[in-house]
Amino acid sequence: MSIDRLPNSRLTDSATAAQKRVNLLTMFRLGLFQMGLGMMSILTLGVLNRVMIKELAIPATVVAGTLAMHQFVAPARVWFGQMSDAKPLFGHHRTGYVWLGGLLFVISAFLAVQVMWRLGDSLEAVGWTTPTYGWVGLLGLVFAVYGIAICSSSTPFAALLVDVSDEEDRSKLIGVVWSMLMVGIIIGAIVSSSLLKQIDGDVPREVLQASINSLFVKVPAVVLLLVGIATFGVEKKYSRYQARSLAVHREDKITLGSALRILTASRQTGLFFTFLLVMTICLFMQDAVLEPYGGEIFKMPISESTRLNAIYGTGVLIGLGATGFLIVPRIGKQNTIRLGCLSVAACFGLIILSGFTGNPIVFKSALMCFGLASGITTTGALSLMLDLTAAETAGTFIGAWGLSQAMARGIATISGGAILDFGRSLFGVPMLAYGLVFTVPAVGMILAVWLLGRVDVAEFQDNAKSAIATILENELD
Fold first, then answer.
1. Tens digit of pLDDT for each residue in 303-356?
2. Which distant-in-sequence residues (6+ apart) come within 8 Å of 176 by Cβ?
3. Model confidence at 198: pLDDT above 50
4. Domain ranges across the chain
5. Would you tell me the crossing angle of helices 130-164 and 360-387 to the nearest 10 degrees?
């Protein structure tokens, strides 16, 4: 059976063109989903992290291990992506999964708080005994469920961005939507801070518990509302999935096995996966050492070093917005990524040089430039990522790219601290140890540029189309 006779093949590019194009208001509305994720990240990785370590005196290693469980379930992204390709939920390929996942991650975040209190009580009452280890295990399990819920909503959401956009609109869409993620992080920090002001200093445990519980009811409720507002009606009005997919009317759809065969049909998949892995590791390796660098080298107090993230985040926010509207449309996605990666490498050099000056103003200026360069790199990479999908298996591809990024974030966090410790033992001089941490990702960005030069979008799309046609023909025959 030839590809010309496959169901839905008569739908051409003109059918896609007839679809309504997302306007700027809809882009900002979709960004509300990412804003909600940003707010939730502050609650889980900021507030809970602080309460468990400081107020409940739970060892930092235990806290980090339980919180990291939400990253260890990242392989589920591929499965949820494929499910959203093949099995509509509540009448939608993407939106139903986004809604269900949103409901689950706000519920699991609240449950994590309740288990946290029980863990703290057990540790205080009986120390490190079997019941306490049991609560640790349960807390890790709850964070794993939280991570699965994030996977089940964020992966179909990213696939929805593919469905509702055309190639020329994607850089703008990425710029707006991921800028809203940074806005959510800022709003989450401000709201959490204001709601928790009354527990500054030593307060009774009951007051602390009531305040944290209240925070984890109010903010997740707002986030759930944002998820609904962000996605309601968007898929029905703007999605091109029906017009683009050869398999949309197939009763059996494309199975997970078929999707994985399509995913691995092109060598470009492995190349881009590796590029994303290297680039993301290099971008986030500094996360674990930035504040200690400010404190140890520039003698910043805790309150000042904490604000370094705001300086970096402001740079990222500007970079994301400007790149999507000004840079990508002018020089293209791959050239934008090259510009971003090389700029990041140069900024690492500036951060190292600022350390030798000992001047905090020079350091902060370098950090702002690093944020701008990171925003440029991120927008270009995410825009290209959405192009490297096939309509029939967009969710599966997005899941694979999400898996690469999740793996990279975990590797980056661990390697940043490990390289710092290695540098201390090797040099015995703090500045040289930190310099090594910043030099490694600078070199890594050069490697990322080389890998990017081998990524060919046209080859990827041709191979994916051929694989889809072959699989569908074989299954029909």
1. 577 577 778 888 988 998 889 888 988 999 899 999 999 999 999 999 999 999
2. 24, 27, 28, 30, 31, 321, 324
3. yes
4. 21-238, 249-477
5. 60
Burial call 447-474: b when 16+ CB within 10 Å, e when fewer: ebbebbeebbeeebbebbbebbbebbee
Q: How far apart are CA 120 and CA 122, in angstroms?
A: 5
Q: Say how many C-beta atoms besides its own lie within 10 A of residue 400's C-beta.
A: 27
pLDDT band, very low/low/confident/very high, at 203 (cuts 50, 70, 90): confident
CATH no., domain 21-238: 1.20.1250.20
- The C-alpha atoms of residue 80 and residue 78 are separated, in whole angstroms, by 6
Angle between helices 360-387 and 290-298 (to 10 degrees): 170
Question: Rounded CA gap, 290 and 313, in Å?
Answer: 13
Residue 142, helix vs strand vs coil: helix
Write the CA distances from 389 to 21, 289, 376, integer angstroms: 19, 35, 21
Cβ-contact 47, 215 below 8 angstroms: yes
Average pLDDT over residues 355-378: 93
Instruction: Read off the tokens for 311.
Output: 């300086």
Residue recorded with tokens 């990279």: 408
Q: Which CATH class is domain 249-477?
A: mainly alpha
DSSP string, 22-64: P-HHHHHHHHHHHHHHHHHHIIIIIIIHHIIIIIS---HHHHH
Contact assessment for residue 212 and residue 64, using Cβ atoms and an 8 Å cutoff: no
User: At CA 408, angle to CA 403 and CA 411, rounded to 5?
Assistant: 130
Task: Tell me if 21-238 shares its fold with 249-477.
Answer: yes
Give φ, ψ of 381 to 5 degrees.
-65, -45
Task: Tell whether the torsion through CA atoms of 296, 299, 303 and 307 is positive or negative.
Answer: negative
User: Mind listing the pLDDT tens digit for each residue in 401-433?
Assistant: 777 777 787 788 778 878 888 888 999 888 999
